[in-house]
From TrEMBL:
PANTHER family: 3-OXOACYL-[ACYL-CARRIER-PROTEIN] SYNTHASE 3, BETA-KETOACYL-[ACYL-CARRIER-PROTEIN] SYNTHASE III. The lineage of its organism: Bacteria, Bacillati, Actinomycetota, Actinomycetes, Kitasatosporales. This is Beta-ketoacyl-[acyl-carrier-protein] synthase III. Catalyzes the condensation reaction of fatty acid synthesis by the addition to an acyl acceptor of two carbons from malonyl-ACP. Catalyzes the first condensation reaction which initiates fatty acid synthesis and may therefore play a role in governing the total rate of fatty acid production. Possesses both acetoacetyl-ACP synthase and acetyl transacylase activities. Its substrate specificity determines the biosynthesis of branched-chain and/or straight-chain of fatty acids. Transmembrane segments: none annotated.
Amino acid sequence: MTGGTGGAADRAVICGIGYRVPDRIVTNAELCARLDTSEDWIVARTGISRRRWVEPGEATSDLAVRAGRAALKSAGGGQIDAVVLATTTPDQRCPATAPEVASRLGLGGVAALDVSAVCTGFLYGLATAAGFIAAGLAERVLMIAAEAFSTLLDPDDRTTLPIFGDGAGAVVLRRGRADEPGAVGPLVLGSDGDRSELITVKAGGARQPFPGPIPDDGSQYFKMRGREVFRQSVERMSAAGTEALSLAGWQLGDVDRVVTHQANARVSAALAERLGLRRDVMAQNIADVGNTAAASIPVLLAQATADGSVEAGHRLLLVAFGGGLTWGATTLTWPHLELHDA
C-alpha cells in the first residue's frame, strides 16, 4: 500500500521527539554466564554488545509515558488531539495501553489507540497519526512506539535472547505543509500473512489461549526463523525503500542517512549492499540498545539527533520490517528539534 499524507497544505509534520530506555544494562557477559554461547559469537552474529531491559514491575506504559513526556517538551507543549501507541507488548491483552498512557500524560479524553505491527510498528503508527491529521480529526498527534520485548523472550534461547532490548521513542506530529522540514513523505506499507509463521508468539491469543498453567512447550515465547527472516527483511526493505524514494521524487544519492529498524547489524550491512550505499550512510545504535522492535526507529532518530549524526536538513529514508510479515518505508527532511529529558 502506498500513499501520501494529504495535500500540499495538509501534511503531518514532526515537530517534537523524545525517547526512553530502561536503566538496567544487560551485557553480553551477563548473558554468556547463563547461555551456551560466547561474547564474540553474539557480536559476530548480531553486532550487539549490550541492551537495556525493564526491571520486574516496569512495563511498556512506563517507558511510553517517559518518551511521550520528552517528545511533548521537545514540541514546546500545545494541545494534543490523539495518542497512537505502536507496541507488541501491551501492558495487558485488554484494554489497549494507549488510553492509560494518555491519561498519565494529562491527556485524558483524547482519542487513544494501540497499533500492532511488530518491528514495523513505528511506520504503521506514523501512517495512522498522519491519517488522523489528513482526515481532519486532529491538528496534533502524539505517536509513541514502546516495547518491553524482554518479557517475551525464552531465557534459555541463545538465538533470540541476546538480540532484543526494551525502549520507547515518540514524536509529535502537527498539521503543516509538504515543503516543511519534518513533513512525512509518501508512505509505503505492506504485509504477507502467508509467512506469518516466521515470527511468532503463538500462545496467549484467541487461537491458542492459555488454558490455565503456562504451557511448557515454549509457545508463550517469541520465536523466529532467523535465516528466512534475514532474507525477507533485506528484500522487503530494499523494495519498500526504493518505492518510497521514487514516490518522493528522490534518488538514492539524495539520501544523507538511512534510518532502518535495528534488527541486526548484518541486516543493515546487507541492506546497504543491496541498495549500493556506503555503510556510513546507515544510522546505527544496535550495539548499545539491541533490537527494540517498534521503538527502534524513533529511539535511533532521537539518539542520532543528540549525537549529531542526524542533523537538521538531512534527507532521511526510514525503512522497517517485522512480524506479520509487515514492512514499510517513508522519507522526510529532518527538522531542527530540541531534545529534553523525560
